[in-house]
């Protein structure tokens, strides 16, 4: 197991390095001059040159690249071209919105999907199970921003139960309003994610239900539910866990759209703004941190999966 | 899915859930690869990577009528898109009505801010959705299949490297990659959006192709063919492609839905096909500001999008059942 | 008209008044303020001096330094609230002394001697001195300054500080608009270090907190030299989406929206006694700028023909319903040199076709319209494409980002025609600068505008600029489409806010809220 973790960790670091290189190249291909946007209308060529020198975009690409790698090694993501603030500080502030948003949506999705998916599998041949499958199918085909707008319309504008968007200035120091602000975005992401997760859970359960050992267990006199609980859930969980990691990453990155709908100061809106303004340090920072989180999630899911599945543990230990 | 407790069943490419779900398909790669690819790819267990099919005796219970609904939705949208080539109620840019007319006999879906007919835009939107879906899937398939087959044939080192690249790219969802590609181009266009989505889809296709190809390559008759001196291009043409085609086809159908949805999100973020392209995503984006005075303008393109995605998903389900002998027997 | 990327509006749209002309004497400009919906009975109650006012805005600053490309949002939040200038441009359009107690102009108009107000302190506690004023002016005119106003202060030769309360500014040539231009120069403590992420001004409020992507709050400054604010603090909440902003007002998330972006959003507020809708005087002009340097737009006849081919009234209706105004030129009614020029090159597609034929384009031509990717430009571009196709002119729409607009069009002049909104008042002077992005070069206009800056009286200045206004209209220098309405909506229990928002300023000190 330890050897496996070590090898997995090495791959994690290598992937991160590749991602850093890819990002650097990609961002330098973006058209537009960030210095131009900095100085604004009426600027003289000298002013623009001064701005270029200030942000270092007048240096040869090679020099910029080496400086970039050096900074990364020191966990320094630089300063935003536009706001002049350290990128890492802004990311930290925005992660405090995006991470809870994603995690809460993820947990809620699980809470919805596992029982409903199991139910749908058990009732696969009855109308109630079919109905659930149809609902899941529908949930997958709804554009997430559409669902968000719909929920705002109903819960915020019509019923006035919740704020329509935004996040309190003092963040979690204003816990009640922070929680209120999170409810609708979390619900939006969770519903879409639950629809997709439910299908995994259902399929996984169906598979377990049809497996030989469960039939054997039942033939030996265990009750259906008892057999399911004793043997089914754990086995069904293994493939679902690997899907969860991906779902979590997708939710994290899908926040780009949802933060836009709900005016949340998260990573997604930071990225979108960065792309518009050609604010390379910000784009780079967001994507690097995002990549790190996604890869880390995959890493943890793998470890968890090994722990859950004794067969994998043996193979990995060889 | 080496990690499955039951024995791998090489007859079907992936477990049930993945077949129904475009999002799941999209992620087939990393969660298969995560445990299997890294350290384990050094071990001689390549075939075991192949996702096993569940026996799924109950899956047959889904009425085929649902699939027919899918075929019907796709057919209607396809025909509408084709019809829009020769006939629409109005010309696209014809400002025939007044501002934000509600649906009426003259304008079946109402008009937009400029007084243009929304039904015309919906029809042309169907065509654009089909072009976006087909184009993105074609690009994704072209890149993905080549890379996937290459990886499957390559030395272990190159295979590992390609697999790692697929994984990293899949870690960025299609939408994010597409955003970057759109931003990297000088100006937005429908072509850019399609290219962007295609590139975004390619690692997913590459991932699936690689797994499917490896499965075929492990078969005895391939070994026989190779021993008898058949060159690898012939192996690919004669054995690999025909064998992976059905499963890959189903997968690509699901990517189609994914691409259409992603285009809508791009448009919502303002990065999609520019006017005068009447893409459904763009219509949704334009209608959002007038949603209180003209809700129909936001609802109709949303419904159209929804119908196409659900239609394609159901069609993919139906196709899978046809091509999947295990499923049919079940 | 949900402006998806409103906060990304070109930062320069707020900064476009690189020069403006106004006399130190107060120019009274009639600004119509019509209250469309009567405030409810809440007015009868006492205002709560501790109430915190929440203001919804689409223009979040990029940083806190108005000389570092922070965008129009920083003017909105900080001008007159956190920072003050020697002069202030009031919401009514007057230029009044603010930190200046008294000032004298020499006979030749080349030397201004300012006496500073006594007892003014910065938020850090330091007293205001002449050295602070000198460093503040030089911060803008410095070689490395990124301020768009650098050019307008180019006539400043030197700034002297004979004593702590006296500042002497020497000019190279007379500049009738110096006080106006100084209203943009924030007086910053010369000891302040990093003003892009913090502040040290003399205004009635000090910055409390700024959460990027979300909100910025300020509280009354205890030691303020003038009258204390009528409220207990202000918070600007920033939105990226006009619909989200409207929703926030509807649900009580904000008290005021500084500028409504679509008539459809308005209908929710006009019939509702819980809200007050106020229409102020607008200075925001939507225009299609030709590149007057390149064929075929170097020919005034072609430009005039295109202007006649477009039904501006219909366009205005499509975008703004019953709101907004047609002006036929670049000058809004609030500028003293405004005259109604809608009859010049009015809508007349038949004559447009004839003029095109006369100009040598009987079969029309084709051009590319560079269109910024945020509202309302894409929809305007589609309208123009449709209208111009009727006279045989083929428009290729090319969508670009705000950033590309800046590089490609503003800097490199690499375009045929583009769409843009210009938000500032008194900005006709752009037509006197042949190097401006649209490249309009009429020596007569250039001369008139230059002379007007050296004018001896307001009347003379007005006369010259009115003439310039007529000439650019007849030359069809650009295609002026319409004047935006300037609409502020608030909850009915909130009063005392500015409605004109001139040059993006939004003074908050007089806002009151009853409970």
Automatic annotation (TrEMBL), chain A:
CDD domains recorded: TM_PBP2
The keyword Transmembrane helix is annotated on this UniProt entry: yes
Superkingdom as given in the UniProt entry: Bacteria
Residue ranges annotated for the ABC transmembrane type-1 domain, each copy included: 95-305
Keyword Acetylation on entry: no
Any Gene Ontology CC annotation: plasma membrane
Organism: Mesobaculum littorinae
Compartments in which it is found: Cell membrane
Protein known as: ABC transporter permease
Principal location listed in the UniProt entry: membrane
Sorted UniProt keywords: Cell membrane, Membrane, Transmembrane, Transmembrane helix, Transport
UniProt-listed PROSITE patterns: ABC_TM1
InterPro entries, sorted: BPD_transp_1_N, MetI-like, MetI-like_sf
GO biological process, one term: transmembrane transport
Ranges that cross the membrane: 9-30, 103-122, 129-156, 176-197, 236-262, 282-304
Membrane protein topology class: Multi-pass membrane protein
Record-stated family: Belongs to the binding-protein-dependent transport system permease family.
From TrEMBL, chain C:
Domain of life per record: Bacteria
Cell location: Periplasm
Coiled-coil residue windows: none
Record-level Gene Ontology MF annotations: peptide transmembrane transporter activity
GO BP annotation list: peptide transport
One cellular component (GO) term of this entry: ATP-binding cassette (ABC) transporter complex
CDD domains: PBP2_NikA_DppA_OppA_like_6
Ligase among keywords: no
Positions of the Solute-binding protein family domain: 95-420
Keyword field: Signal
Family to which this protein belongs: Belongs to the bacterial solute-binding protein 5 family.
Name of the protein this chain belongs to: ABC transporter substrate-binding protein
Organism encoding this protein: Mesobaculum littorinae
